[in-house]
Sequence to fold (180 residues):
Amino acid sequence: MNEQLKQEIQELINSDKVFLFMKGTPEQPRCGFSWRVVQALKEAKIEFSSFDILSNEDIRSGVKEFSSWPTFPQLYANSKLIGGCDIIEQLSEEDKLNF
Amino acid sequence: MLLELIKQKLSQSFPNAIIEIFDNSKHHEEHRVHGAHIVVRIAWEGFKNVSLVEQHKLVYKTLEKEFKEKIHSLQIKTREI
Fold:
């Protein structure tokens, strides 16, 4: 991955305390798993920023490599990967979804 | 066939783990063309002191090839025993 793309991704992740790479937007998720993470965050009253990876193929493939994580959504908190849908739902069930 | 292969690979990566695998594809018939929807549950001693993110990464790594070729979505639940 080139340095510029890497930096661009890092800047996105750093741009908010909680950041979500997802398919679609929080208002209009375009995948069931992205929808479920948005719901979990809303229920936990967690504010977040997001990026629609369907809108940019470079970012989409770059983030997968950046994080060594092959799927979306991907949730970051304090610039650290927290996980995908399964982990977020597990944390939510265990009442541990707080950043 | 795919489930057998997945089971075999996971058993090698996570020796003595309790592994459950389901094919959930029937709930996604409309876009099954993209590949199978697989659910795996793994309880393994080796997950102790390993973060959830790293636990899932180990599963992705084990099934990297299948994930690229045959699996459309992989639902993972891991825990330590």
